[in-house]
Amino acid sequence: MASSPQERLESADDDDSDDPYIGLEQDSDATRRFVMEANKFCLSALGDPTLSPRYKRVLQLLESDNRIPFVSKMGCTEDGDDELYNLWKDAKHPRGLWRKTTLSSYETDKPEWKTVLDLDALSKTENTPWLWRGSRVLPRGRDPLSENQRNVTRVLICLSIDGNENETGVVVREFDLLSCEFVQEKESFSMLQPANTRINYRTRDTVYVGSDFGEGSLTIHGFPRTIRLWQRGTDLKDATIIFEGESSDITVAAYINDQRPMGGNIFEVRTRIIGPRVSKHWVKKIKYEQLLNATSGTSDFKELQVPSDAEIDFVGNVLLVTLRSDWSPEKETKFKKGSLIYVNSHKFLKYGPADRIYHVLFEPKGLAVCNDFIVTKQFLILSISECFKLRLEFYKLEKDGNKLRLVYKDEMPEPRTINLRAVDPCDGDKFWLTTSSFTEPQTLWLADASQILTSKSERILKTGTETYIEKKLKSLSSHFDSSNVIVTTNVAKSKDGTAVPYFTIFKKEISGGKRNPTLLQGFGTLNNGLSPSYAALPGLAWIELGGVYVETYIRGARLGDDCQAFRDDIQNAINDFLAVAEDLVSSKVCNPKTLAIRGGSEGSLVVTNAYIRRPDLFAAVSSHSSLIDLKRMAVLGCSDQSNSHLLAKAGSKEWEKCFKEFSPFHNIDRSKKKYPPVLFTTTEIGSTEHPGHSRKMVKKLWNEGLGRKWPAFYFESSQRSATLQEQYAFVTILSYEFLFKKVARSTQTFHD
């Protein structure tokens, strides 16, 4: 069962006798006094950020309801207009308003919304503070009561209770979308006791369910270990166990993959999720008549013989495999890590991976990465980043769903982020296209892949977004003046020779030389593609002031079950980040006296390691919601809780071997006479890391830095009356103002 950081602290054996700062992890009177004094010292030295005119602008940005209401199609009206659903939260509806509209209304500036479920009203009526935790729809193709398969009629809604000790526990309630009412409990698939439940429809009258059924039903991670098949109208405790995992697994899953609209078959899939991105799958091809049978035996399932770290998808009659490691399905065939390949699904299931005909849709070369793909009724659309630019590739599903043929490419002219979502893959080729760039706010478009095909033949047409774009639906307003801002692309070389891409964003009139106030931030997404999204906060708090904002994409330092892999990951991430910093200096964008760095959560681990290792390279450092003491990860927790094994090892004999070298708290170098000014911040609301990390770090810097130039500041937003937006705006401007003042030219001031 998952536990909160405070619960872990209370139950932990504090045997770290060599840590004199451990008391700052506790919520005690002494800790509160320390926080109060640290806050006072910080604001007296750095100033009150609420006095900055940019504070109000950041707060307005965070509080703004100027958001795109993203929607999901769940049917259509009698006259054929798409019905679109959206979950909306604002000051009036903090818990959420589930609502719907039509496509024709959604296309207008002010859509007419109809309430489906008001969680705030429900919470008041039932005197229970409900939180929305997601939903599972009954697919129209498996619902005999959906008229002409036109509408989704039922949905399983997952809710949690705000403040419940079981942070991951949910209740499940079945909802009728035709009447907009909950289905009566005796006739529904409702589970009203909070538990770590996973549930989804098999048919209208059967569901797969994994939950806490008592001893042995959960894994050591607190998630379902068994899957049961529950039939409507029967007692849940009588539901048959159809699939089991090991207690050491993270969890298990079962689902139906229906490829009939794409010319394929129905597949029943069962999965053991063994570790982070490590799974085993068992698959059976079934007919619709078999699906309606209320039983689901264990016979005829075949283990899918793909790498355990690969991702799988069925499309028509082909199996897509996304590789996270090199794979040789047979001696003379080898596919590279990061490749996307496909093979005939029926032959693969029947005969295995050897002697099959494989087709490569994408193979990584240089900086090329396949970001994502979506499937419509006739098309597979790939999103590919290559050398700072983005490309969409359209493959048409042909020969009764047995072949994918490239029919169209679209090269985006400038660096940008694109998100694709199919509108209704069972009924057409339309898709939602969301775009943004460093200087362009988020925009939503409606597109149709079928428009790329000519009337006479289906050959590749000239590239051009306008070919498949139907209309612009929504766009957000700008938050900073980007009219004279330019974006340049660059590549640094890491210690092992890996190319590390980065962007520099600045005003055209910025002069050359080494004195540009420069802010470097890194994101661990290099292996997942580049994502240059709208730079609203850096734009108004740095670029407008004449600073150079730099965004780099480094190799991620993810947690996993293997300590050596973690060592390699974090070392690569640090090397990548330092390589970009050094490249900025050598290319004369800035010098060490005008270079600042900033990072939060897991990014703070890279930033604080850079601070400890290369104090000569930076003029100022800001770390928010920091992850600093790796020895105490298992107790304090961290934002990535996907593998408790690694967290436990951090406090065991593996500590010296795997973690100590990368724990900033344990690597402060007392021989250094000078460290650059550093600011640690955390917010009480919404913080991803325990504040004990930052409290201990700054206190240690103060104590061991006596007589040295080790300026360190700490601010912990503990104002219970402040909203999340107010707290975040406060520490954001505090951070930017602190950094800019340290690196800006002496003739400049932050309040220009």
Automatic annotation (TrEMBL):
Keyword annotations: Hydrolase, Protease
GO CC annotations, alphabetized: cytosol
Region (Disordered): 1-24
Any matching Pfam family: Peptidase_S9
Domain Peptidase S9 prolyl oligopeptidase catalytic: from-to ranges: 544-705
InterPro entries for this protein: Peptidase_S9_cat, Prolyl_oligopep/macrocyclase
GO biological process: proteolysis
GO molecular function: oligopeptidase activity; serine-type peptidase activity
Listed name of the protein: Serine protease, S9A family peptidase
